[in-house]
User: Fold these one by one.
Assistant:
Number 1:
Amino acid sequence: MTLEFNVPDLACSACVETVTQAVQAVDGSAQVSADPKTKHVSIVTQAAQADIRAAITHAGYTVA
Ligand SMILES: [Cu+2]
């Protein structure tokens, strides 16, 4: 399944890396694409949306 999130705090490529690592700590095979310009994060994963959302939040980012 593909999850779509808006992460307004996503400012640069380091943020993308942080979010990607947080998501992949939940699901190592997750495919994460995130764009600091649009603040849009798209994640292909089998993990539950709530778990992915929690991982991003715990990494210090607000999910809109
Ligand atoms: Cu950043």
Number 2:
Amino acid sequence: MKEEDFFYVNNILHYRISDKESLSFDFLKGRLFNRLKRIEHESLIKKAIGKNKVKLKIFDATAGSLIDSIIFLKLGHRVVACEQSKILYRLLDDAILRAKNEYNFFENLSFINSDSAKIVDSHLDSDIFYFDPMFKDIKQNIKRSGTLQKIGNVLSLERLEDTSEQIFNQMLNKKYKKIIVKKPIKSNPLHEKINYQVKGKAIRYDIYIKT
Ligand SMILES: C[S@@+](CC[C@H](N)C(=O)[O-])C[C@H]1O[C@@H](n2cnc3c(N)ncnc32)[C@H](O)[C@@H]1O
């Protein structure tokens, strides 16, 4: 990560990934904003969480662009979101700062820049552990969104690997109530212990419940 590759355009922090592409996040307009407006329609992830009147604590081990975390926040839950990339963290911290006055739900977000493996044990009281690993097939990430492709490029720059699958495997031996893993629809579950699935067209959620 080079400090000189961070720059502002219209008060929005950007990171130069290459001569041709840069990355920034904005929750107040553009693609992310439109997605946030439509969150009421995100029925799949709502089904995966299950009907809940109480405020849950959700540990998002793979924060990425924070979209899934924001869906949880908008549904009224409390979220601890962890992202290992320093670049993503800075860009998102900037986006949160600009959007904070607009959206009260950010009060319920604790956004942490760390390897989730290092902090997950301090959050074993969470009601849900959420994992959205980078899809191994790069084409699937591109299909999911251009932002995910850029996130992949940022991780390569920082020489970071997606290690969420390992953390998920360790998690299975710990105390948990519910684990949700986002997967491409046709892929194999990460573990045979799976309890049930919530399926969409391109992706599905695999749910693990401790019995
Ligand atoms: C597919 S993206 C997540 C997308 C996210 N759900 C969203 O709504 O934008 C996966 C993210 O998990 C992060 N990640 C992978 N392993 C991690 C770990 N061990 N600790 C923290 N973050 C991790 C990656 O850096 C990447 O940003």
